[in-house]
Amino acid sequence: MDWYIKVVRDNYFNFEGRARREEYWMFTLVNTIIIVAVDFIDKAVSGPEGWILGAIYTLAIMIPSVAVNVRRFHDINKSGWWVLGLALFVVVGWIWGLVLACQDSDIGDNSYGSSDKYPDGNDESDDDFLLDEEE
After folding, report:
1. What are the residues facing 110 on neighbouring strands?
2. Which of 16, 25, 79, 125 sits in a 20 to 30 Å window from 96, CA-based?
3. Which domain holds residue 7?
4. CA dihedral 102, 105, 110, 116 (to 10 degrees)
5. Domain contains 11
6. Cα angle at 30 between 29 and 32, to 5 degrees?
7. 34 Cα distance to chain centroid
8. What is the chain's pLDDT, residue by residue, as a tens digit (135 residues)?
């Protein structure tokens, strides 16, 4: 729930920087649970045609959803325009967007900022972790 609140309260209109997988997927999970709950309440209160609460929630959460998507793509060193481009290619774009959203963060700094997950990835020292090499 903390990740959801962080995205909605602290980064409502923030398209800058990077969002790790944990932030993105925890936001997505909580958002999906809220959507199901709002739909259930809508149907219970207004009958089968209930849609008002869902529409209000969808409009309120649209900007932070796009923002966390853009920051997630920044984390794998892709432009935020990929979000729009993949949304336009209905099935194939959505599947490829899912694959990209599941990728691990870029190690170290990229053109969108520094990595919270791998902050020492660009160090020249030998005491950092090694990738694909056994000790």
Report:
1. 113
2. 16
3. 2-102
4. 140
5. yes
6. 65
7. 16
8. 888 999 999 999 999 999 999 999 999 999 999 999 999 999 999 888 888 999 999 999 999 999 999 999 999 999 999 999 998 988 899 899 999 999 998 888 888 888 888 876 655 555 555 555 554
Flag whether 7 is in a domain.
yes
Which residues contact residue 67 at a Cβ distance below 8 angstroms, ignoring those fewer than 6 apart?
A: 7, 11, 12, 13, 14, 15
CA distance 126 to 56: 53
Q: How many domains does the chain have?
A: 1
Task: Write down the H helix ranges in 6-129.
Answer: 21-46, 52-75, 81-88, 90-102
What whole-number distance in Å separates Cα of residue 109 and Cα of residue 107? Answer: 7
Can you give the pTM of this predicted structure? 0.81
